Known about the structure:
Layout: H1 4-20, E1 28-34, E2 39-43, H2 56-68, E3 73-80, E4 91-93, H3 97-106, E5 111-114, E6 122-125, H4 126-129
Amino acid sequence: MVSKKDKELIEAATLAVKNRYRNDWQEVGAAMRTRDGRIITGVNIDAYLGRNAVCAEAIAIGRAITEHGDHGIETIVAVRHPKPGEPGEVSVVSPCGTCRELIHDYDAKARVIVPSNGKGPDVVTIGELLPNKYRRGNE
Length: 139
């Protein structure tokens, strides 16, 4: 169940992508709350070569670490802006596999806001999204 703080994150991610939206370039926004309470946002960075794209969640995590130091991820969310002419509003999307790995690497206890089959957003742990996470060595 999403809390008032979770809704605040969704609004921050939505504002980030609405302010920076460029069709086929910046269509995903993310917001994360660090464990010390700060909200950090990011938008995806796309490229002509798809594999060179950087997800919004990675940008938010990178900004948090670069600007404030690593304080962990309490909660993170990503939202997608519809393309021109596409029906719908900005809505919550699940993190891709790479972002799931990244979120888990930086905070194995992070909460993630995800869509819930048209019922509105829901909150899960990163471990629920990434069971049996690969670990190096004896970790």
